[in-house]
Amino acid sequence: MISAVITSFKEPKTIGRAIEAILANKIPQPYEILVVAPDEETLSAAAVYTKKHKNIKTVKDEGKGKPAALNLILSKAKGEIIIFTDGDVHISNDSLKYLLEPFKEKEIGAVSGNPVSADSKDNRMGFWAYMLTDVAHQWRLASAQKHQHFFCTGYLFAIRKNLFPKLPEELLSEDGYISQAVYSKKQRIAYAPQAKVYIKYPTTFADWIKQKKRSAGGYNQIRKMAGVEMRSFKTESLGAFLFFHYPKSLKQFVWLLELFFARVYLWFVIYRDINLKKKSQKEIWQRVESTK
């Protein structure tokens, strides 16, 4: 059996689209859809679908954050393979077929989907989203082909249930922690580039910092927890040259230069908040309104 889990928080306007996108996929075996959220607005919007489909259920979490919600849902999911996605994104009509295919190999413990920006490249924030998602795609593709370690995207991934670790509630980046847990069990992570998940990225710089601070900062946190370097200012700096073929105009080249300065500022903020101010997960994790 397959369990498809949609984690959500105050997303009543987008949860229906996320559910319908999964229903549009042809899953070759029995499956269930579990919508987990702490707020009644999202759960009520999802309940419309539970009345029509017996295999869709809602689960209310205690609002302690995504790691706690994932720990809760693991005890309720019946599937041997669990698919995770979010309530403010949607997958393509054949994503799950490609996401599940690699599990035919016993050494595959998890499979990452492919995040695709749903934003226009005609503005600075949309252009940044396009570049960053495409570079991540190229990195995952090359790493998978060489059997090198890479991390799943939290926007869409699948994992064997018996490999899913208990998550510390203070985690900022659960996808990196879960990926490292898979590798610690001597299992591989596969990449399914055709398993696309469409994402609306931040449209303001303030929201961009909020989102990137908890994701990039999360990998700094994992380095301290597990002693594994998965992303850092140094590794980003070494890969900066990969971005130079993206600009097709002077305006886009200026946006690229602005991105370099923005990433430097981001890593300064991460160092300040985590190492100097020692902010908690709740203080660093802030809702990003412009992605909804």
- Element pattern in H and E: EHEHEHEEHEHEHEHHHH
Total beta strands: 8
Unreliable spans are: none
Q: Please identify the structural class as seen in this structure.
A: alpha/beta
What form results from the Cα inertia axes? globular
Distance between the termini: 31 Å
> Largest sheet, described in full?
8 strands, mixed
User: Rg to the nearest angstrom?
Assistant: 18 Å
DSSP helix count?
A: 10
Question: Could you report the average pLDDT, rounded to the nearest whole number?
Answer: 88
How is the largest sheet built, in terms of strand order? Answer: 3-2-1-4-7-6-8-5
Beta-strand residue percentage: 15-25%
* Helical content (DSSP H or I, runs of 4+): 40-55%
Describe the SSE topology.
Layout: E1 2-7, H1 15-23, E2 31-37, H2 40-50, E3 56-60, H3 66-74, E4 81-86, E5 90-91, H4 95-100, E6 108-117, H5 124-145, E7 156-160, H6 174-184, E8 188-199, H7 205-226, H8 233-238, H9 250-276, H10 281-284
Parallel strand pairs: 1-2, 1-4, 2-3, 6-8
Antiparallel strand pairs: 4-7, 5-8, 6-7
Description:
Helices cover 43% and strands 18% of the residues. With 292 residues, the protein is α/β, with parallel strands linked by helices. The chain has an eight-stranded mixed β-sheet with strand order 3-2-1-4-7-6-8-5, sandwiched between helices. Helix 2 links the parallel strand 2 and strand 3. The protein is globular, with a radius of gyration of 18 Å.
